[in-house]
Amino acid sequence: YNMQPLNFRKLLLGAIDTIQQTSATHQIVLNGTEEIEFVGDYLRLEQVIQNFLSNAIKYSPKADQVIVEYKLEMGNIVVSVQDFGIGIARKDFSRLFDRYYRVDNSAMRFEGLGLGLFISSEILKRHQGSFWIESEEHKGSTFFFRLPLDASKNNHEAINNDDFYKDRSLSIVYN
Ligand code: ATP
Ligand code: MG
Fold first, then answer.
1. Could you give phi then psi for residue 101, rounded to 5 degrees?
2. pTM for the complete prediction?
3. Whose CA is nearest to atom 15 of ligand 1?
4. How far is the CA of 43 from the centre of ligand 1 (A)?
5. Beta carbons of 119 and 168 less than 8 angstroms apart
6. Ligand 1, closest atom to CA 110?
7. Whose CA is nearest to atom 4 of ligand 1?
8. Continuous H helices in 59-107
């Protein structure tokens, strides 16, 4: 991991711009104005945001908007990506971030490998992040994640250590 100082707003704007260019149907709206200095792996976090955004668009074929929000909360950045799409049943919440997992029926109509959220969760783990979901079927989903401003600070060893996964459990909270 290449942990570097970066501007979180710029990171978000870049990812949004990239995904916006792939969609003629949805407008991605960004709420939040703060300039936040942050330490993280730019390319990998960009990939995380792009994964959430492309899912939000893919799984809301009848909607025309995706809303991204970010804010600073007690030394953490909290980001949400909200769509108004097919939603996710509660029973599927716990497996969404598993490798190759795709929700039966609903997801089968859409192309995909079931890797985006798995990869995203690995990257967030490496940044000491956590994430959670709020969703209602046929109404839409919101994916949240929280990142400490400097994941490399208190955790230098872990970040560069392959044993990282053994002792740091990922927290997933279901609302
Ligand atoms: P890939 O991202 O590898 O192209 P994918 O989108 O199917 O394929 P993930 O991004 O890991 O894989 O998502 C896993 C599953 O979670 C999806 O197949 C879908 O069932 C569900 N899912 C993810 N995001 C949403 C969303 N915004 N709304 C509804 N379901 C979602
Ligand atoms: Mg995906």
1. -75, 130
2. 0.88
3. 102
4. 20
5. no
6. 7
7. 112
8. none
Ligand nearest to the CA of 60: 1
Q: Which amino acid is at 2?
A: N
pLDDT at 160 exceeding the cut of 90? no
Residue carrying structure tokens 């711009």? 17
Cβ of 11 below 6 Å from ligand 1: no
> Reduced to 3 states, what is the DSSP secondary structure of residue 35?
coil
**Ligand 1 touching residue 102 (CB < 6 A):** yes
Query: What's the chain's length in residues?
Result: 175
Q: Which ipTM value was assigned to this complex?
A: 0.98
Determine whether 159 is exposed, middle or buried from the number of CB atoms within 10 Å of its CB (0-12, 13-18, 19+): middle
Residue 74's identity, in one-letter code, is M
Q: Is the shortest distance between the CB of 88 and ligand 1 below 6 Å?
A: yes
Ligand 1 close to Cβ of residue 41 (< 6 A):
no
Predicted local confidence at residue 162, as pLDDT:
42
C-alpha to C-alpha distances, 140 to 15, 55, 63, 79, 88, nearest whole angstrom: 21, 11, 10, 17, 8
Distance 156 CA to ligand 1 centre (A): 32
What are the tens digits of pLDDT across the range 13-49? 999 999 999 999 999 999 999 999 999 999 999 999 9
Both tokens assigned to 46: 């960009």
Query: Which residue(s) pair with 58 in the sheet?
Result: none
Cα separation of 33 and 47, whole Å?
A: 21
